Inverse folding.
């Protein structure tokens, strides 16, 4: 077990070094001069030269990477050209919003995807199954940015049932920061109005973001359940007189769970990707929107920071799932 | 035989029909479109669907129907371009990894790990931004994040096939590496390749439209579906036709490729049949 976890963590370190190389290489490709961009168009030649020297941009690329890495290991991601703040500080401000949105979308995914998948499998080839499969087909093929725009148009602008863009109404003060997740912080501080408002603000973006992954999880749950339902031991369990609920709960679902769990881990990555579009539409102050604005303004220290953090979250999530998986199912450890 | 089995899958045939229709639309867009997709007619802007303009007009008076038809060209072309690029590159790399094995394999697989670590849209956006926003650069960016999928897939196939009797027999009778790869290994990787490519057409169409929507892909006034939705975003409740039609076109096209992918997988890999 320990060896398995160690091997996974070793792989993770390699991936992170590779990720830093790749993001560094990307920043090198940007045609614009970061020093010129940072100082603006009024800067004199010698000012720019001095700034380049200060940033280490006059050094050979290999040395620059060395400087970048040594700073990185100290948690210094450099300074954003646009916000003129440390990228690490920017990310600390924006990351909780993305985490909150992603977790809410994951909740939507699990709450809708797994039960619908089970119901579809248990009613195979009926209209219920057909309905679930059509839902999965549409969810998997719909451009999520259109879904977001429609939800916002209908439920906010037209019907005014739910609040619009952002994490909180502008009349409310964010809760005292503990985790940075408004819903959790509001609960912890007993701030009920902020909690309900934050939850209301989460509904539309989390449905938008969760739609695609719900479709994937529904399909996966359905097919995993169908596979288990056809197994001999299920027939045996039925033959020895176990009730439907016990057969499904104890025998079928438990064995159908590992592939479902793996998909949940993988979907985390697609949620982070989707967060870019969702945050743009809902004006959600997370790292997705931060990344979009940073790319637009060629603020590559910021882009590199986002890419690094995103690339850390995803394999870490997957490694955790793998480790969890190996606890449930000892056979994978031998692999 | 395989074709007959495929034709029995009703949903897959429906998907195929959708793809054929979109392909015809893409090829014959100039003949089918009643108007020039870039032709402005500002006095007639934001007109609701009517016999003259089946899908209405946008704020510059351009015909939404004509723009949607031309959009099929861009989206299907983009999907095809990206899938071809990433499938060719990924297949070559995957075959080498699986066939050579050892450290080469290990090295290549760790490189694909690095690409898999990024949420694809964030990496694609960073690449597209670094190269400069344009449709062509968006395609390159999406291909860069897609090829590792093929490399992994093909490598896995080659690993399975490498030790099969027919490959060992070929080796025993003195076939060289090149011949074994071309004649025996590559043809046997084609079916999973086809399934993956079909799904990736859908994924790519959505990714390229997404990049265009946030400004890193096709640029206005290009009649691209993502651009059209972006241009109509402020009119979503008042002038629904600006965004609804391109979105439905995308939904149909992507669903078509997904259904065909499902059907192909069921036919080509009966073990996964559900």
């Amino acid at each position: 077990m320990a060896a398995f976890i160690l091997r996974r963590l070793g792989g993770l370190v390699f991936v992170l070094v590779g990720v830093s190389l790749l993001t560094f290489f990307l920043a090198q490709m940007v045609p614009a001069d970061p020093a010129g961009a940072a100082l603006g168009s009024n800067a004199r030649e010698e000012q720019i030269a001095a700034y380049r020297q200060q940033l280490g941009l006059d050094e050979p690329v290999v040395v620059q990477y060395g400087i970048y890495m040594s700073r990185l290991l100290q948690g210094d991601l450099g300074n954003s050209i646009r916000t003129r703040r440390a990228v690490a500080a920017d990310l600390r401000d924006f990351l909780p919003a993305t985490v909150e949105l992603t977790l809410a979308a994951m909740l939507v995914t699990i709450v809708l995807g797994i039960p619908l998948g089970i119901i579809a499998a248990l009613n195979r080839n009926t209209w219920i199954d057909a309905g679930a499969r059509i839902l999965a087909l549409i969810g998997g093929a719909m451009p999520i940015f259109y879904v977001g725009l429609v939800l916002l148009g209908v439920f906010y602008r037209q019907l005014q049932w739910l609040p619009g863009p952002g994490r909180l109404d502008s009349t409310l003060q964010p809760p005292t920061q503990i985790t940075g997740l408004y819903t959790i912080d509001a609960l912890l501080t007993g701030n009920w109005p902020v909690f309900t408002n934050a939850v209301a603000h989460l509904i539309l973006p989390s449905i938008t973001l969760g739609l695609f992954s719900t479709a994937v999880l529904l399909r996966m749950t359905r097919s995993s359940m169908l596979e288990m339902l056809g197994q001999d031991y299920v027939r045996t369990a039925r033959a020895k007189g176990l009730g439907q609920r016990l057969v499904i709960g104890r025998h079928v679902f438990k064995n159908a769970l590992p592939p479902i769990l793996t998909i949940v881990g993988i979907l985390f990555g697609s949620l982070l990707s989707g967060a870019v579009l969702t945050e743009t539409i809902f004006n959600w102050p997370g790292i997705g929107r931060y990344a979009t604005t940073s790319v637009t303004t060629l603020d590559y220290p910021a882009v590199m920071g986002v890419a690094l953090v995103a690339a850390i979250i995803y394999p870490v999530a997957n490694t955790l799932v793998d480790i969890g998986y190996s606890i449930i199912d000892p056979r994978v450890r031998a692999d | 035989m395989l074709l007959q089995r495929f034709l029995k899958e009703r949903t897959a045939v429906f998907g195929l029909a959708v793809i054929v229709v979109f392909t015809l639309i893409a090829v014959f867009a100039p003949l089918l479109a009643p108007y020039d997709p870039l032709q402005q007619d500002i006095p007639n802007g934001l007109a609701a669907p009517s016999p003259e303009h089946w899908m209405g007009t946008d704020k510059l008076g351009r015909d939404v129907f004509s723009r949607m038809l031309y959009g099929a060209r861009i989206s299907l072309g983009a999907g095809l371009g990206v899938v071809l690029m990433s499938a060719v590159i990924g297949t070559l790399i995957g075959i080498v990894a699986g066939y050579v094995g050892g450290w080469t394999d290990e090295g290549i697989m760790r490189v694909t790990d690095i690409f898999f670590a990024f949420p694809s849209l964030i990496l694609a956006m960073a690449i597209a931004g670094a190269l400069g926003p344009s449709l062509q650069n968006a395609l390159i960016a999406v291909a860069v994040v897609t090829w590792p999928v093929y490399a992994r897939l093909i490598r896995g196939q080659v690993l399975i096939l490498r030790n099969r009797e027919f490959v060992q027999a070929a080796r025993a009778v003195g076939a060289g590496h090149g011949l074994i790869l071309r004649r025996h290994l590559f043809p046997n990787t084609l079916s999973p390749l086809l399934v993956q490519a079909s799904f990736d057409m859908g994924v790519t169409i959505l990714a390229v439209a997404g990049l265009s929507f946030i400004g890193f892909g096709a640029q206005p006034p290009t009649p691209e579906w993502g651009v059209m939705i972006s241009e109509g975003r402020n009119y979503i409740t008042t002038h629904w036709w600006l965004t609804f039609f391109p979105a439905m076109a995308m939904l149909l096209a992507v669903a078509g490729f997904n259904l065909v992918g499902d059907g192909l997988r069921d036919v080509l890999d009966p073990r996964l049949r559900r």
About this structure: Residues 64-100 of chain B form the longest helix (37 residues).
